[in-house]
Write a structure and sequence with these properties.
Blueprint (H helix, E strand, L loop, with lengths): L10 E9 L2 E8 L5 E8 H11 L2 H14 L12 E6 L1
Antiparallel strand pairs: 1-2, 2-3, 3-4
């Protein structure tokens, strides 16, 4: 993970919290001291959400993107893996 401000890879996790299906991590860049939060969601839950709101073709495209970007994740096999979903 890189710092969103200075692109440094020197990042420290200062706090981790779990809220239901999300896991929040408070991070600090050791170079520029910027603080930011990331959260992780369960990929299987994310796919269920997509299935409720998108058509099959869109769901397949989303699954292909996730599998391409995270090759160790097996979404179609039902494995419950975590994917970093967003940086706030």
């Amino acid at each position: 993970m890189n710092c969103p401000i200075c692109e440094s890879i020197n990042i420290k996790v200062s706090d981790t919290r779990r809220n239901g299906t999300k896991q929040y991590r408070r991070r600090k860049c050791l170079d520029c001291e910027y603080l930011f939060t990331t959260y992780e969601v369960d990929a299987a839950m994310l796919m269920e959400l997509f299935e409720e709101h998108f058509d099959l073709e869109t769901n397949a495209k989303i699954a292909d993107i996730i599998e391409r970007e995270f090759p160790s994740r097996d979404l179609r096999g039902g494995a419950r893996k975590k994917v970093t979903a967003c940086t706030i």
